[in-house]
Design a protein that fits this description.
The chain contains 6 helices and 14 strands. The chain is of the alpha/beta class and 210 residues long. The protein has one domain: Ribonuclease Z/Hydroxyacylglutathione hydrolase-like (Metallo-beta-lactamase, Chain A), CATH 3.60.15. It has a 6-stranded mixed sheet with strand order 1-2-3-4-5-6, covered by helices on one side. A 6-stranded mixed sheet has the order 7-8-9-10-13-14. Strands 11-12 form a two-stranded antiparallel sheet. α1 runs parallel beside α2. The N and C termini lie far apart (36 Å). Its cofactor is Zn(2+).
Length: 210
């Protein structure tokens, strides 16, 4: 398994391309710059088979419809945010200067935690709410990594001042769902550089009381 990080869109949100040896890939959080993302996928001769959303804030969904249409693939989002994609007041775009972001509804709803199998990909879905009600993290034991969305960052955590945010719930999610993963697990966040579970356990000031 291979992964590539691409900062896209108005907030340079990390989109991830997670690919296998057959050149199939999952596109995680395509936040914008659809043409750039499409060109990279085509240049690498990759075949997207699904779009996964860690949550439905505007800066994570801006290129969803373009990529979905180009490859005719399904979009997955947690059921708690099924109405957010077409609604600027829910996805947060109306509160920022990026203009209203409206995306067609998801094709598949993530209804609970568990193994999500798409083609030859198998990911464990963890519900990690707090930044938003439907935030999820996707863990690949095989690749030793977790796509944490905006729950956990290198040295920081997600903001909780947007609609549906809950600081106490976010801290609980991180401790109970992410910090229990193997310490060498690579954390691929929605913004900023990659980190590891071990590094955040030891040095994240929001989690260790320093």
């Amino acid at each position: 398994m291979k992964w590539r990080q691409l900062p896209l869109g108005p907030l340079q949100t990390n989109c991830y391309i997670f690919s296998n040896n057959e050149k199939e890939c999952l596109v995680i959080d395509p936040g914008g710059d659809a043409k750039k993302l499409t060109n990279i996928l085509q240049q690498q001769h990759l075949k997207p088979i699904a779009i996964l959303l860690t949550h439905a804030h505007f800066d994570h969904i801006g290129a969803v419809d373009d990529i979905r249409t180009e490859w005719n693939i399904p979009v997955y989002v947690h059921k708690n945010e099924k109405d957010w994609l077409p609604n600027p007041s829910l996805n947060g775009s109306q509160f920022f200067m990026a203009g209203a972001v409206k995306v067609s509804e998801a094709d598949e709803l993530i209804k609970s935690e568990g193994i999500l199998t798409i083609g030859n990909f198998s990911l464990m879905v963890y519900e990690t709410p707090g930044h938003s009600p439907g935030s999820v993290s996707f863990y690949s034991e095989e690749a030793g990594l977790v796509f944490s969305g905006d729950a956990l960052f290198a040295g920081s955590i997600g903001r909780t001042d947007l609609p549906g945010g809950n600081h106490e719930l976010l801290i609980k999610s991180i401790h109970e769902k992410l910090l229990v993963l193997p310490e060498d697990t690579l954390v691929l966040s929605g913004h900023g550089p990659e980190t590891s579970i071990e590094a955040e356990m030891e040095r994240n000031p929001f989690l260790n009381g320093f």
